[in-house]
Amino acid sequence: MTLRILFIATALSLGTAATGAEREAPSFNEVMEGHIQPQLERLVVQLVKEGRAMRIDGTPVFNGSDKFLPGKIALAFSDLISSLPADDPRLARYIADFRRVAELTVDDPNDSWGIYYYLSALAALDRGGHLKEALEPLTLAKLRVRLDWRLRDRAAAQPTALGRR
């Protein structure tokens, strides 16, 4: 849902910017910084404020239909954190917010691409030196198990009473 909104915002930004023949189309960086990044920040702040009650266009965000949602949220949040300079006053708050949202979503379904998104988010936080402060030890321990795709492969390969799954 979040990624779809960002793609739509990008398309609208590009479409409205290129309507005048005399105006030059904005660069990708201008679109990201001027349109997408502020929208992403608004969505992240809304998520922190509303939690599981969050709705977008009247649709509950946490309705169980998106099996990649925790990974998408983590990736969006880590992108926002990574884009901030070290002296930005919002940085500490967003890292603390990431920690709260990670605790909120750690037990939610997060399959295939969601695992990839979450691992990418954790790698970005680690590169920025924020991983330890962005996750509670219990949440990190849970993620170590939940994001290990090898466990899923082994479970699928285990024989059942009727043979292979």
Would you mind describing this structure in some detail?
The chain has one domain (2-153). The protein contains 8 helices and 4 strands, in the order ααββααααααββ. The protein has helices at 2-17, 28-50, 69-83, 90-105, 113-127, 131-134, 137-146, 149-157; strands spanning 55-56, 59-60, 159-160, 163-164. It has a two-stranded antiparallel sheet with strand order 1-2. The protein has a two-stranded antiparallel sheet with strand order 3-4. The longest helix is centred in the first third of the chain and has 23 residues, at 28-50. The radius of gyration is 19 Å and the shape is globular.
**Secondary-structure element order, N to C:** HHEEHHHHHHEE
Q: Going across the biggest sheet, name each strand in turn.
A: 1-2
Oligomer: single chain
Count of DSSP H/I helices: 8
- Radius of gyration over all CA atoms, rounded: 19 Å
Mean pLDDT: 85
Helix content: 55-70%
- Runs in which pLDDT lies below 50 for 5 or more consecutive residues are none
Q: Please tell me what the overall shape is.
A: globular
Strand content: under 5%
Domains counted in the coordinates: how many? 1
Structural class: mainly alpha
Number of beta-strand segments: 4
Distance between the termini: 32 Å
Summarize the biggest pleated sheet: 2 strands, antiparallel
